[in-house]
Amino acid sequence: MKTNWKLIATHLLFWMLYVVIWSIRDMAYAPTFWDTVDANVIGALLYGSGVYINLYVFVPKLLLKGKRLLYGLVMIVWLLFMAYLGSQTFVFLYRNVSPSTSEFFGSAGGLASTAVEFMVVYALATSLYFINEWYIKERRLRELESQNLKAELDMLKGQINPHFLFNALNSVHVLIRTNPELASNTLEKFSDLLSHQLYEVEKDKITLEQEVQNLDNFIQLQKLRHQDHVQVNWDYSGVLSDKPIAPMLFLNFVENAFKHGESDLEAPVQIDISIEVNESTLTFNCVNSAKKKADDKEKSGLGIDNIKRRLNLVYPNRHTLEIDFKDNLYRVQLALNLNED
């Protein structure tokens, strides 16, 4: 993961300002400004640890999971603990610098003062944290809305194209005379496929079961088109129901695999496609034989780039995508963390 130096610098600036402002304030309790700096640097480390434990442990584990009452109780205990730890730390630090200040922090008033100080720092840091999170989510939402519109147009143009429609309908036309029952089943799959690509693509999330069914319809139609020229192994396993997923993440990869069946006419093409779901982890694999590695623009146009961009927006830090060509095999492996927490 790329280090966010800008965020780190912002946090460092926040704590530097804390040390300077509190050191100026504490000059009333010490002979010089520099006599207060050491104590406030240690105070920043102490309060900083309390703030970050709250932001990265208590907030995501309790508050963001809807456990508000438990979070409130934990914060009361945490506040009392930090106030006591802070007051005792300042008793020790000011013992030789200002005995009267050290005695003050050992009293009930000092404990209350430390508690208020921590609450001020905690409230300010937490507010800035949620403002930053809101800004990031708003920016991602705007970008995602724009990208979804582009993705919808790209997929409608790229998947429902005249060439695919002509071949699929022609195959059905032949089957009507030779195998009416199969023709009827094929038309049903074709109808479901068009319905999915026209309507489901507009949604942010659909069920994994719907996405797999759409992929199955597409594969069956492609097998019918290519017949003996393409050998397909297609399998899926795991629990598919009640698992939301962004639509049309796999279709581009599968379509590209079948494109080899059109380009390498002199040799049969082997395609292996699988989806495995293990609790909240999904692994998609697509492997096809190929004589040479196709140029990215020649092979997929904007399709793969669009999928990569959508993955970064919808599944940030929750996916891995590996694409490579080796030993005349073109491999795609996509792993998704379906857990939205």
Automatic annotation (TrEMBL):
User: Membrane spanning segments where?
Assistant: 7-25, 37-57, 69-91, 111-131
Q: Which positions carry the signal peptide feature in this UniProt record?
A: none
What UniProt keywords apply to this chain's record, in alphabetical order?
A: Membrane, Transmembrane, Transmembrane helix
| Ranges where the Signal transduction histidine kinase internal region domain occurs | 151-229
Q: Keyword Transmembrane helix: yes or no?
A: yes
Gene Ontology cellular component annotations, sorted alphabetically: membrane
GO molecular function terms attached to this record: phosphorelay sensor kinase activity
Claim: Transmembrane is one of the keywords in the record = yes
Q: Which Pfam families match?
A: His_kinase (PF06580)
Instruction: Read off the InterPro entries from this record.
Output: Bact_2-comp_sensor_kinase (IPR050640), HATPase_C_sf (IPR036890), Sig_transdc_His_kin_internal (IPR010559)
What is this protein's record name? Signal transduction histidine kinase internal region domain-containing protein
Q: Which organism is it from?
A: Roseivirga misakiensis
